[in-house]
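Replying to the earlier thread about multi-chain prediction with a worked example.

Input:
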Amino acid sequence: MARGRTIDEIQIGDSASFAKTMTETDTYLFAGITGDLNPAHINQADSENNMFGGRIVHGMLCAGLLSAVLGMQLPGPGTIYVGQELAFKAAVKFGDTITATVTATEKVKGRFVKLETVCTNQDGTVVIDGTATVMPPKANE
Amino acid sequence: MARGRTIDEIQIGDSASFAKTMTETDTYLFAGITGDLNPAHINQADSENNMFGGRIVHGMLCAGLLSAVLGMQLPGPGTIYVGQELAFKAAVKFGDTITATVTATEKVKGRFVKLETVCTNQDGTVVIDGTATVMPPKANE
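Result:
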């Protein structure tokens, strides 16, 4: 399996993205595998009365799209995920198409790369923003 | 559906936790719903040669256990998830039992609660630590 990019192969400003339509199915599977059966995600009758007017996708599930871009594209395979800061800015409804984009912003101590991490919906609304810290693969890996 | 605790019903130091054994099945479902098919998670032949010596569970999937505690226990239903900082400290292998614990540490501006968020494995090793920021439900919700 080809490794991802080393720190020397990453330039500040490099960017990658992945888009996926988030569904009821995704949400119910995530509820099952995490135990997060919060009614906001799985109870239509109850959640119709909340501020979002119905069930919403888990924020942490959408954050998984950022993990996908980091682990598969930039830096890619061999990356060690060190940290992630997330700000949940807007709700994601079933059927929303979420684009996760990561952009390299800084190299730290010659070993770590910081990336701006943003998820937007089909209307361009930012639903998550934040910062990832990763350790890219070494050249000999 | 009963709502969770309001900010006035939460005391600094209040804590809640949830434990789950994380499996290959969980990991493959998460890979499918996020698109994170990083070989570290889904390729045994390749990942046997990496530093973890085999496939590991996605960090963001384990972070979902923290979302579960926040959304279902403390504060509980009606909580708005505002932000999460995560530091991934150790790998999670298939079969590891992860305990996610959240502890209220601070009230901010009378509207937000900060909680320390920690995931440990069956040996007591911290695999994730960080901080959550949430807006607890209002009394009339």
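Chain B has a mean pLDDT of 95.

Feel free to reuse this layout for your own posts.
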